[in-house]
Amino acid sequence: MAEQTEKINVTIDGKTIAVDPGTTILNAARIIGGDVVPPAMCYYSSLKGSGGKCRTCLVEVSKGSEKDPRPMPKLVASCSTPVMDGMEVKNKTSERVNDARHGVVEFLLINHPLDCPICDQAGECHLQDLAFEHGLEKTRYEFKRRTFDKIDIGEYIKLHMTRCILCYRCVYTADQLTNQREHGVMKRGDAAEISTYIQNALDNDFIGNVIDVCPVGALTDKTFRFRSRVWYTKPMDAHRDCKKCSGKAVAWMIGDEIARITARKDQFGEVKEFICNECRFDKKEKTDWVIEGPRHIDRHSVISANKYEDPIPEHTPLLNKA
Amino acid sequence: MARKLLLENAHIEGIHTYDVYRKNGGYRSVEKALKTMSPEDVVEEVKKSGLRGRGGAGFPTGMKWSFIAKPEGVPRHLLCNADESEPGTFKDRYLMEKIPHLLIEGMILSSFALGANQSYIYIRGEYMYVLRILEKAIAEAYANGWLGKNILGSGFDLDLSVTPGAGAYICGEETALIESLEGKRGNPRMKPPFPAVKGLWQRPTVVNNVETIAAVVPIVNEGGDAYAQIGIGRSTGTKLISASGNINKPGVYEIEMNISVEEFIYSDTYCGGIKNGKKLKACVPGGSSVPILPHYLVCKTAAGQDRLMTYESLADGGFATGSMLGSGGFIVYDEDQCIVRNTWNFTRFYHHESCGQCSPCREGTGWMEKVLHRLEYGHGKMEDIDLLWDIQRKIEGNTICPLGDAAAWPVAAAIRHFREEFEWHVKEPKACMERNYGLVAEKTFEPATA
Q1: Which of A131, A137, B213, B311 could serve as a FRET partner for B288 with CA atoms 20 to 30 Å apart?
Q2: Could you give the 3-state DSSP secondary structure of residue A176?
Q3: Is the pLDDT of residue A19 over 70?
């Protein structure tokens, strides 16, 4: 039996919560929820070793702990800094954090093609949401952007390296979910690219999950590419008996047809149960699935603003008057 | 007369061979330590000596050693960081090339102090010929019983090997070095856990610079107290300085940390003055990543005191009017040099060497390089200067490892002290292609009156 450990208190933007020792600031903030949660582009709770890279989750620790109340001199990555008892953290209330986050968003965007109008990820893209919340309207970057050729990695997945923000999530996914390591990062600095060894096809039952973990449109589903904008599709919880995975997925429908299948994501955009390639790519008939009902898409994604769940929002004054 | 502790015998013919080295008192310290001292005694002597890390950060070595975790039954490792790649720094190469046995002797002492039985020297791939020298020296040390099982009958075993890197500056960062040594991509790790707790193969590890490890030899030979007598304040002992740039006598000098910067630049014992009788324009005292100092802040601090070649004195005034001793890569610029071009060159290096793991450094270094290139070639705009300032500000402190800071500091310092020269590049696009800004009016430092 593990010993019952005492919970420790941490205050984030003035809200205090008791958490288990070893919890990171980001996860403590996620327990509180709402505005105090820092954005995270690379951290993925179910992938070991992820986090610390994108620097969007930087926060200011204004009080180290009860024992050592000195503030931390630098901003810290909340996804990889464990909380201490009595720690006080500033996220949105810190000028320094907002300024640094501004900088990080700008850095992420300078080499991003900004091709949202033709990108399949648009509407459910974390970078889009992040830029919407923290970005500038105009770019200060006046040079040629970095580009790469598109690569087919395997039968179902398209790699669009130009859009990649090098969060390494897909690298960890391929490494931890599949048997052999077949996918990694080559080169360095701003020339670094996600690649398979000599453009090998990724051939594995679970490799499709790299599409779901990708925060941007760098890895897209070839069975769905350019078929529809995501906000025109209706997300439905669906399940089927599958020998390889849990079979719990989301079916994105256009009318009565299933346009694509993804895994179920939580409010922070993270997949909790990964699904297999068969469910994702091969089962596109309505008869393959048991449709449970509409799926609630949470948080600040563009699709959460669609009228699907709540056809006439009460707070739309124009409609209410009519 | 200045004392030399590391390079005392460097001039002797054949000192790189075991026989000559031994005849000149080599491996004396190992005999002393293994026969008369306990590992704790060695750590104690190093603590007393006040030795600080010579790789750049200047962290007290004794304290670093005492942080190493000692869980039961888990091997510990000592790694020697010979991935010296900072532009302007070449002291470790000189030391390893001339007297490789001194490093091996230091490795034996340090490994003994830390209880490490398997130690590694991680050397940059470009130093392949130095690697051959070290390998030969290690083979000699094995043959003469200084490495291997039961050294001098003391029961202490030590295996030592050299591993080359594959050409990455970032692998000089200790956690990236560990990753690289493990055979992985050289990306720095997140800290904590620190290497002292979980380092190489998740075992407690200490990473030290070549010069730091070599300095343990005189410390054990002469005692920590005697070593601490040399130098001023918390800058004890001697330091190797790689002097380069527009000076009459570039090269590696061992200095006692009590001489003034003025003496170091102008004395014939050291740099021998500025080449061709020109005037001093600026100086980077500690390798490319430390802030550049304009001529009026090189020999005197902002408070008007003589600046000394010590950790404290070079840092006097913080980043506003000071710099850092860093790794001791002392670069001198004469009146004809272009600061914008120099800054662009440094930034180009950091852009090339960024590992690409975290966003501010990956994207920011490339951006800075492009803007500086534009300025240097007469296509710049006035806003570019503020833009550069803003980019470096957003990189500094926001990255996983210190490479981001190292890329940001030179840009910040160049703009801080040489803003007029940047502006001149914008105003005189034609002239800046034809000649350099040079050394305009003789300027002296005027403390801000508030």
Answers
A1: B213
A2: helix
A3: yes
